[in-house]
Design a protein that fits this description.
Elements: H1 2-24, H2 30-52, H3 63-86, H4 89-96, H5 99-110, H6 117-134, H7 143-164, H8 171-189, H9 199-222, H10 228-231, H11 239-250, H12 256-280
Helix pairs in contact: 1-9, 1-11, 2-3, 2-8, 2-9, 3-7, 3-8, 4-7, 4-11, 5-6, 5-7, 5-12, 6-12
C-alpha cells in the first residue's frame, strides 16, 4: 500500500510541473523552460545528497548508459514542453501514453524479449488510438501533436535503457545524473534562445523544478516497495490531474475524439503491461 500511495502521489504532483511549463511558455521559449526544469532539479537534489545521502554521492559504474538515459529523457521533455505550448496538456499526455507500446516494439531488438501476437495486437490498437486523436486528413496538420507522440517514443527508449541498465547506482544518484545530463546539454544551447525572466518567472521556474524533483523522488521510493510492473498501471492516473489543471487554468478540455483515442491508448497500454507481468511470472 505504501508503494501505491507514493506512486499515485508522484503522478498527481508531476502535472503541476507541466501546468507551470505551459503557463510560462506564453512568455519564455520552451527550450529555456526545459533547461530550467533540469537545472533546478540538480540545484535541489545535489545539496540533498551531500547533506543526507553522502554515501550515495559517488561516480556511476555505467556512465555511457546513464548518459543515454539522461539524453532520451531530455529530448522527451523538449518534445513535451513544446507540444503543451501549442496544444492542451491532456491531449499531449494522451499521445505521450504510447511509451509502453514503443517499449514493446523495441524490446525484441534491444532486450531479446519475445513479443507474442496478443501484445503486437495491442500495439496496433494503440497506434489506431493515436490516429483517432490526431485524425490526419480530417483536421489541420499540427506539428505539436507529433511532438507529443515523439515524447512517448523517446520515453519508450528511455524505458528500454532503464531495463538494460544493470547497475548498483542508487536511484537518487541516477536522478542527479539525469538532471546533470539535461543541464549540461541545455546550457550549451539555451543562450541562443534566452529571454530574461522576471523575478516572478524565476519563482515559477524554481517551483517547476521543485515539483519535478519531488515527483521523481516519490516515484523512486515507490519502486523500493514494489516492482515496476505492479506500479506501471498507476501511471495513467496522471491524466486526471492533467485534465483538471488544463480545464481550470487554461480552459482546455478533450473533445470526444481525443477521449476515444485516450481510451484506446490506455486500454492497449494496460493490456501490454498485464501481458508482460503474466509472461514474467510464468
Amino acid at each position: 500500500m505504501k508503494a501505491i500511495i507514493l506512486n499515485i502521489s508522484a503522478w498527481i504532483m508531476l502535472p503541476f510541473m507541466d501546468a507551470i511549463a505551459k503557463y510560462l511558455s506564453s512568455s519564455l521559449p520552451f527550450f529555456q523552460i526545459t533547461w530550467a526544469r533540469y537545472f533546478f532539479t540538480v540545484f535541489l537534489v545535489l545539496p540533498l545528497m551531500i547533506i543526507f545521502f553522502r554515501d550515495q554521492f559517488k561516480w556511476t559504474e555505467n556512465p555511457k548508459l546513464q548518459f543515454y538515459r539522461g539524453l532520451t529523457l531530455f529530448f522527451a521533455n523538449i518534445c513535451f514542453f513544446y507540444s503543451i505550448s501549442i496544444i492542451s496538456m491532456a491531449k499531449a499526455l494522451t499521445l505521450a501514453f504510447v511509451a509502453p507500446l514503443i517499449t514493446t516494439v523495441l524490446s525484441p531488438f534491444f532486450l531479446g524479449e519475445k513479443v507474442g501476437i496478443r501484445r503486437w495486437s495491442a500495439v496496433i490498437a494503440g497506434f489506431i488510438g493515436i490516429l483517432v486523436v490526431i485524425r490526419p486528413g480530417f483536421i489541420e496538420f499540427n506539428f505539436a501533436s507529433f511532438a507529443a507522440v515523439g515524447t512517448g517514443c523517446f520515453y519508450g527508449v528511455y524505458l528500454i535503457i532503464t531495463r538494460k541498465l544493470h547497475s548498483t547506482d542508487s536511484p537518487l544518484l541516477t536522478l542527479l545524473l539525469t538532471g546533470v545530463v539535461g543541464t549540461i546539454i541545455g546550457t550549451f544551447i539555451v543562450p541562443f534562445v534566452w529571454v530574461k525572466p522576471t523575478l516572478t518567472e524565476w519563482s515559477w521556474l524554481i517551483l517547476m523544478g521543485l515539483f519535478a524533483c519531488l515527483g521523481h523522488i516519490l516515484l523512486i521510493y515507490s519502486l523500493k516497495y514494489a516492482d515496476a510492473s505492479k506500479l506501471a498501471p498507476f501511471g495513467y492516473i496522471e491524466i486526471i490531474p492533467n485534465i483538471i489543471l488544463g480545464y481550470f487554468f487554461f480552459n482546455d478540455l478533450l473533445d470526444i475524439w481525443s477521449f476515444s483515442g485516450l481510451f484506446i491508448i490506455i486500454s492497449s497500454g494496460l493490456y501490454v503491461i498485464r501481458r508482460e507481468y503474466i509472461v514474467k511470472h510464468k
